[in-house]
Specification:
It is a single chain. This protein is an alpha/beta fold and 424 residues long. The protein contains 15 helices and 16 strands. The strands form three sheets. It has an eight-stranded mixed β-sheet with strand order 3-4-2-1-7-8-9-10, with helices on both faces. Strands 13-12-11-14-15-16 form a six-stranded parallel β-sheet, sandwiched between helices. Strands 5-6 form a two-stranded antiparallel sheet. The longest helix is centred in the C-terminal third of the chain and has 17 residues. The protein is globular and about 65 Å long. The two termini are 27 Å apart.
């Protein structure tokens, strides 16, 4: 490979990379990456922007890079070794991806993950474009934790720090040297990154504790749309604010099971005052054991009208669905970084009930724009749901909401960071 030198240009040329395209996967990281790409396209000082996302489309990783639409590409790439996070199609990294870089010649490469892409592309960016600014947004803890980046032990308990001994408790097949090699391989590739972005202070500190230099990580929250706050859900005078909405993925880490247990354990008279709308996706993709447990918990509550199972939604449907609830609930049992639904709820003018850990506790101010609830504690969640029904409390929390940054402001902040990197 030969390096391509940059000449001075009037504006920036930005390649945004993502581990998935939101056309096929509606995770928060994918949506954040795509929305930032679109904001870059409209940002002052940006001449051109492109979007490249990993995608197998059900036919495996061929390594090909193919157009999706104007200025958007899909890379049929995957992971061969999840322990070391190595790409499945390594030749494609040094050939097809390198050729794309040489053709586009971006001044900034902003990657939003390395899952499904592999670590190797970071080195290739700097090999081909040594003067380009390489930024990487960290969306969870995959570099630190081999357990899907969740920092949860296999027994379900929370893990607070990196420890090779603790890691072996979850993965006894890996030796301490194996785990050391994993960390060394990932950190060696992170050395190619000029600057990291974390959407939360909490995640930033976890990566500093792991070994990233503090001065190389900036905190920039994911941007949101420009829509106005929704009016309160229509309610009669004195009517309880007792309609709660769960939005997002349904998996063992998102805590819906805790919420359902909380409702099951409430006395019948109290439970009958509440309604939980479940706007959830991908339950069918989970294990039989988890899927069956959710259905067993939910069905009696559905039969009683306490739970309304609405189902998945597309991004453009979110506002209409949030209009019908009073509170948004985020009962996750892992160290969420910055759940997109929190910022989306704030844009819509809806206060939240969230687990009292990680980025959830950071983003929602307890007693100001929402309530913190003991993580994984069904009894406390039941108490919190009942407390939240108070109309006066709801008005107080709704009035305390601060509007999140727009996509345009988010893009500007990223460009300012990139400019500082280039001039230092």
């Amino acid at each position: 490979m030969s390096a391509v030198a940059h000449t001075d240009v009037a504006g920036q040329r930005i390649l945004v990379m993502s581990h998935r395209h939101p056309d096929f996967s509606l995770g928060g990281g994918e949506i954040a990456a795509y929305q930032l790409y679109r904001a870059y396209r409209e940002a002052p000082g940006v001449d051109r922007a492109w979007f490249l996302a990993s995608c197998d489309r059900g036919r495996g990783a061929s390594g090909a890079i193919v157009p999706r639409r104007k200025d958007e590409y899909l890379w049929e790439q995957g992971i061969h070794d999840w322990t070391m996070l190595k790409a499945a199609q390594r030749r494609s990294v040094t050939e097809s991806f390198a050729e794309l870089l040489s053709a586009l010649r971006p001044t900034i490469v902003h990657a939003h993950h390395y899952a499904h892409l592999g670590m190797e592309f970071l080195r290739v960016v700097k090999d081909i474009l040594p003067s380009a600014t390489l930024c990487l947004t960290l969306h969870e803890y995959m570099a630190i934790c081999h357990n899907q980046g969740q920092m949860i032990r296999v027994d379900g308990s929370l893990c607070s720090r990196e420890s090779f001994d603790d890691c072996r408790g979850c993965f006894p097949q890996l030796s301490v040297p194996d785990l050391w090699r994993r960390k060394h391989f990932i950190q060696r590739h992170f050395d190619y990154v000029d600057h990291f972005v974390s959407p939360s202070k909490f995640l930033r500190q976890r990566y500093i504790d792991w070994g990233l230099p503090a001065e190389k990580i900036s905190v920039i929250e994911n941007g949101q749309g420009d829509g106005e706050a929704l009016p309160p859900r229509p309610a009669a005078d004195g009517e309880l604010r007792a309609r709660f909405g769960y939005f997002g993925q349904i998996n063992p880490y998102k805590g819906l099971h805790v919420l359902l247990k909380a409702l099951r354990e409430l006395p019948k008279a109290q439970r009958s005052r509440l309604v939980l709308e479940v706007h959830g996706a991908n339950l069918d993709a989970q294990s039989d054991e988890f899927r069956n447990s959710i259905r067993e918990l939910a069905q009696p509550l559905i039969d009683k009208g306490v739970v309304q199972w609405i189902g998945p939604y597309r991004p453009h449907e979110l506002r209409e669905r949030m209009a019908g609830v009073d509170w948004v609930v985020v009962p996750s049992v892992w160290w969420e970084n910055s759940p997109m639904v929190i910022q989306e709820a704030f844009v819509c003018g809806r206060p939240l009930l969230v687990s009292d850990i990680g980025g959830m506790a950071e983003k929602v101010r307890d007693g100001v724009d929402g309530l913190h609830v003991g993580v994984g504690n069904a009894r406390r969640w039941g108490d919190a749901l009942l407390r939240a029904c108070d109309p006066d409390l709801w008005r107080q929390m709704a009035s305390g909401i601060r509007r999140p940054d727009s996509h345009a402001v988010c893009a500007r902040k990223h460009l300012e960071v990139a400019q500082c990197v280039r001039t230092n």
